[in-house]
Every structure is written in C-alpha cells, then in structure tokens.
Specification:
alpha/beta; six-stranded mixed sheet; 4 helices; 6 strands; globular
Length: 132
C-alpha cells in the first residue's frame, strides 16, 4: 500500500507548525494508496473530529490533543487512531488492519496509539487517560 506524499506533509504541519487539530486518512482501494481525506482547523474540538469519522467505514486518523498536567503545565500528545467500526465490511477492515503498521511508520512522531471499533473506545475520557 503506497502512502501519498500529502499524508506525510500534512502530518509534519500538524506536528511542527500545529496548523491542524486532526487529519483523517482514507485508503483509496483503486489507487492502492493512503490519502488525506479531511484536515481539521486548530480551533476544532474533539467532538467535531469524531463526527467526521464514518459510521460504517474504516479510517486512520491523527489527533493533536492539548491538556494541562496536574501541575498546570500545558502539554500535547499526538494520537494515532485506527478506526475500524464493527459495521464496516470485512474486506475494508482487513485492508486497514494489514496496512496500519506500515502507514504508522511513515508518520514519525506518533505518541499514543488507539484502536477503536465504536465511539466508546475513543471517547474523550479514554483520550484523557491515555495522554498522561
């Protein structure tokens, strides 16, 4: 599975310049490559991000989560989320599962990985607990 150059460029913008809050990636089966499907503005919320994930198709996503430590220090964690809803077609799930590690290696700087099959597995409470 090839990775479109834009995938890495947008990720570098998110990581270094913080110009995006999230990036959603989609595998285009016909071209056999991972493409950028949607980019979130820095002001967008986690709820706006999760609303962009389809109910019955898999996606990869990166989310830049800002939080305060118990000491009051501003920090951020870059999450890689493998979204694979139970309602997705088996073939769709297999393609995403088999390509995930290779794709993730292309994105240098991922700090936390999550695998989710429904919204409860990637709720804001899960993000908060995994960020520390």
């Amino acid at each position: 599975m090839a990775v479109h150059d834009e995938c890495k460029l947008k990720f570098m913008d998110l990581k270094a310049k913080r110009t995006h809050r999230f990036i959603i990636y989609k595998i285009e089966e016909k071209q056999k490559q991972v493409m950028v499907e949607k980019v979130g503005e820095p002001a967008q919320t986690y709820d706006e991000f999760t609303a962009c994930l389809p109910d019955n198709e898999c996606r990869y996503a990166v989310f830049d989560y800002d939080f305060l430590t118990p000491e009051g220090v501003q920090k951020s964690r870059i999450f890689f989320i493998a979204w694979s809803p139970d309602t997705a077609r088996v073939r769709n799930k297999m393609i995403y599962a088999s390509s995930k590690d290779r794709f993730k290696r292309e994105l240098d700087g991922i700090q936390v990985e999550l695998q989710a099959t429904d919204a409860s597995e990637m709720g804001l409470d899960v993000i908060k607990s995994r960020a520390n």
